[in-house]
Specification:
By secondary structure, the chain is an all-alpha fold. It contains six helices and no strands.
């Protein structure tokens, strides 16, 4: 079986066709129906149902829960909105009956403010600690340039002087009289 060398992606017409197809798909995705035909009352009801937690089901909104209590709470939300209540009034109504834990989003006041402030602060502190730790590790593992001999290049005169001093120091240790000063 023989395969031909196909360089179809190098052809400008093919690249243009693929780009136009991708652009058309993107345009269709952006212009899809966004739910403009949903009545405002139904949108508000759905939004409130997502913001109120089912007292029986841990961590589930009344919108998700199939518990009979959640079903009745959904009908109460729809009824109150039909009567002209605002979203905050409806939330306060449920908080009076079930306590502040009935709201999926904690209030942004008092001690509950910590639930909004502490997580971002913890992320900032963690990033800062990692940055400082990495700088400290890099500083302790760096070898000072005075220790490395890669950068040191001696001339022939310097090398000869260095070797003479080493030989003189070795000769000093070998004399039985003890060290003598070189002249």
């Amino acid at each position: 079986m023989t395969y031909r060398n196909q360089n179809y992606m190098k052809n400008p017409k093919t690249i243009l066709t693929v780009a136009l197809a991708a652009l058309a798909i993107l345009a269709l995705a952006c212009t899809s129906n966004t739910g403009d035909d949903i009545p405002e009352l139904e949108r508000k009801t759905h939004s409130l149902n997502k913001a109120i937690m089912c007292p029986v089901c841990p961590g589930e909104s009344i919108d998700q829960s199939q518990n009979p209590l959640a079903v009745s709470m959904r009908s109460i939300v729809a009824e109150k909105l039909t009567d002209g209540w605002t979203g905050d009034q409806i939330k306060d109504f449920f908080v009076e009956r079930y306590g502040p834990s009935v709201l999926l989003e904690p209030p942004r006041e008092g001690i509950s403010l910590a639930a909004w402030v502490l997580p971002p602060m913890a992320v900032v502190v963690a990033i800062f600690a990692v940055f400082i730790g990495l700088r400290w590790m890099r500083r302790t593992t760096a070898i000072p340039s005075a220790v490395t001999s890669e950068n040191t290049v001696l001339t022939l005169d310097e090398q000869e002087s260095y070797f003479r001093r080493i030989e003189a120091a070795l000769d000093l240790d070998d004399t039985p009289d003890g060290p003598s000063l070189p002249s």
